[in-house]
Amino acid sequence: MACSGGPVETPSTLVDAGDVVGDGGFADSGVDPNRDAGPARDAGPVRDAGPRDAGPVRDGGPERDGGPERDGGPVPDGGDRDGGPRDGGRDGGAMDATPPSGFVDSLIDDTGLGGTDLDLIDIDGDTDLDVVVSLAETQTVRLHVNGGPGVVGDGSTWTSVDVAPVGSIVASGHATADFNGDTRLDVVAIGAYAVGAPFMSASRIAWYAQPATVNGVWTENLVLDAGIYGLSAIAVGDLTGNGLPDLIVGAEPTNDENGMATGDGIFWLRNEGGTFSAPIFIDLTLSAVIQIRVADIDRDGVDDIVASGLGSNRVVWYENPRAVGAVDTNPIFAAHDIATITEANGFDLGQLDADADLELVVGHDDGAQGAIAAYDPGADVTLPWTRSDVDTTLGGPTQPIRVSIGDFNGDGLMDVAASSRSASTLRVYTRLFGGGWFAQTVTSQLTGLLDVDTGDIDGDGLDDLSTVTRDLAPTRDETTWWRTQP
Known about the structure:
Blueprint: E1 20-21, E2 102-109, E3 115-121, E4 130-135, E5 140-146, E6 158-162, E7 171-177, E8 186-191, E9 204-209, E10 219-224, E11 231-237, E12 246-251, E13 253-255, E14 261-263, E15 266-269, E16 280-283, E17 289-295, E18 304-309, E19 314-319, E20 334-340, E21 347-350, E22 359-365, E23 370-376, E24 386-391, E25 401-406, E26 415-420, E27 425-431, E28 437-443, E29 449-455, E30 464-469, E31 479-485
Antiparallel strand pairs: 1-28, 2-31, 3-4, 4-5, 5-6, 7-8, 8-9, 9-10, 11-12, 12-15, 13-14, 15-16, 17-18, 18-19, 19-20, 21-22, 22-23, 23-24, 25-26, 26-27, 27-28, 29-30, 30-31
């Protein structure tokens, strides 16, 4: 469908244009601030799972009007997403980064209900970024193809495809990888509980093979639908070294069919070449898992796992002991705390400074209201990382907060976007050359805002934002592109 939208007005709640927030703390990387932002980057095979409030299931219903545009402000441009490092920045003056002049919000879809997870990724291999959304209440995973199949799009038109049949999975998250070796990206999804069943039922995992034409029928392959409960997050990575994508899932607390407490923990499922193993536990103590990412934290060439547990107040990375180039079908992961913070929420990893290590940016409840914090590892990445504040005023109860890293103004510094459902707020933080962050509110009126991702949707070299809502209205949610204005 065609996008609709116009210039976004500056809201009355806009953070002061001169407000520099956070305490910086990152070293000089020597990046030229005037360099070209460069071409879009692939989103990579591993993505995070979305927010997890299941709620009653509703039918998708007929297509509805896009509705009025929402407020926004002069906000930095988004960034093409990948699960690994983003470019760093350099020191300079206190306020020598120029944010974009604003965003234009354009509706992609308002027929899918109950958004839980959103990713920007080139799923059809035509070099533009498409949008993949998990929809718990329409009970599907929906793909929005930028420009249509085989067409390099600029965000002006979208072709929508239901990867999973509507009504087949209470989707609480998804990830992408080539599961059948045909070089096309497939989609794997988790269902928090069974369709048509009460919350006290087993979760579901299924992957969907991409057809020869992306808008064709995707073939479902069931992984499991019994024995595990409360699935809330998923990621994909080669944990064993055999070149096949394994599954990593996390759960939140729930009850089984007998009312017995269950859920919680991090598990992985080994890819055995067409089938998957039963879930293998990594950490049963991580409670209320919000997000999982796969990245090489210790830079040894082997995939590690990072996860946040809201109930455990922790962000943890799990060290994969496998030697690079070796195959280990049963790696035993070592847990290392990155941060102990109240109600750890969504996070992202990226290169924020001059060294080769990844940094982490996470949303959480700081005891008063929503907060965004950056964590920088020391010489020993197994020890707790050093915190610096990005924002301590995101507003209200924090659940859920989602975070995405990208270069929003094309200056070579990695910036941050954050969404808060409780505050109905989407905010961007421009990284300053001299340290600290320049905070701007894109909107403070997007009810039900659940997830945000960043990437260059229109191919203009500036990163944009994309968001999805849950319960924007009783029978309406929206998937939206926020186009960056230089």
